Amino acid sequence: MTEPVVIVGASMGGLRTAEALRRFGYDGAITVFGDEQYAPYNRPPLSKEVLAESVSHDAVAFELRASVADVNWVLGTRVLSADLDHSTVTDHNFEVHPYGTLIVATGLRPRRLHVPNGDVRGRHAVRTLDDAIALRAELVPGARVVIVGAGFIGCEVAATARKLGCEVTIVAPGVHPMLRPLGQELAAEMQRRHEAEGVVFLMKREVTDFIGDTAIAGVLLDDGTTLDCDLLVEAIGSHENTEWLDGNDLDTTAGVLTSNDLRAVRRDGSEWSNVFVVGDVARFPNPVYDNECRRIEHWNIPTETAKRVAQVFTGQAQGEFRPIPSFWSDQYDNHLLAYGVLALADEIRLEDGDISGDCVFGYYRDGVMVGVCGIGMRSVVQSYRSNFV
Amino acid sequence: MIKIDVDMTKCQHYGQCVFEAPQVFKLNNDDKLEYTATADESERANVEAAIDVCPMQAISIVE
């Protein structure tokens, strides 16, 4: 074991890695760098419960186990660069920190719109606690909210904003919300359910500019029409936080490429023995599906990758790393639960229930189940999980 | 023995715990969480894994 362990990223992936290293017997030094001022906290409530209720770090902070009490948390500190040949990272104060083993846990940040009149107040994203605090303050009854993007985050924010009494319009380039993961039938049904709750969809449309001098007053769309609004939520996907690793001969297109054991891979294919990647910034092969390397932005991946890295690091890893991705989403009373990688499917079948009520869909590639997703019927959804383990 | 507590004011019945500690947690036919209040010490690692994956952070081991 090469000490000390330096973890860059103090969100769920960083925390779970520190905990797992202790659980698997590493008792050496661990330092965790986080660019936010907050100790690790739980992000899923930020687009749901936290937006609807009071927003505070206390409400979402992860409980820190006794096993990580001696971890050195360096918060409010951004790591600017890494020199893997010399095993150092440099923080924003230009202090250089040597490591024995480096864990990359820097995750993602929201993509933002780039438009000519971009410098206006009232633009929001939903990734950090501070983002949620800022957005919550503006979600007042009667506020006109435009959400750009119709993925899970955009749809969850839409549902929460409707509950809070806002007027909500979603603008997105696709045909239906959440179409790529859910498939045509379920995505169309979710759109229908949102519309029944009063959300307006402007699909196959893009925002080309903002209207307003200092504060946003509306958006200009690609068909030349305009839409008034009081605030804008940008939910158009993510960028990987990998720029700090530039210059190190890593493949950082769409996340950091790793081996199945989550070791960072050089461009020539060789592996760094002392550089690991966890969480949604890791692009790893998952033999459950195929040899393709993918980033997975689902809930359980930080925890699963952290555990695997700790096992590899302490020499206790067995077999292949084969995590089954899992996610859920709450939109009004619609509780979506899924296992697997739905987007791989070339065929989707209704397995149980009724599309107008609770239902379960199976996702197949070449006739083999690669995922399952339901609205409600969670115990039924769970019963299919073993089909693709 | 370990004593397990689930804060049912937080639990949203996502069922993520079920696959980590199937001897302790399950979703019943109404999709509600059921769990055993005590378990053998040998279940501790599984319950700790369930604590980690709970989206609502509702599970704890009472020491």
UniProtKB/TrEMBL annotation, chain A:
Keywords: FAD, Flavoprotein, Oxidoreductase. This is Unannotated protein. Residues 5-293 form the FAD/NAD(P)-binding domain. PANTHER family: APOPTOSIS-INDUCING FACTOR 1 (PTHR43557), RIESKE DOMAIN-CONTAINING PROTEIN-RELATED (PTHR43557:SF2). Its cofactor is FAD. InterPro entries: FAD-oxidoreductase/Apoptosis, FAD/NAD-bd_sf, FAD/NAD-binding_dom, FAD/NAD-linked_Rdtase_dimer_sf. Transmembrane segments: none annotated. GO terms for molecular function: oxidoreductase activity, acting on NAD(P)H. GO terms for cellular component: cytoplasm.
TrEMBL record, chain B:
InterPro entries: Fe-S_cluster_ET. Keywords: Electron transport, Iron, Iron-sulfur, Metal-binding, Transport. GO terms for molecular function: iron-sulfur cluster binding; metal ion binding. The keyword rRNA processing does not apply. The keyword Transcription regulation does not apply. This is Unannotated protein. PANTHER family: FERREDOXIN. It comes from freshwater metagenome.
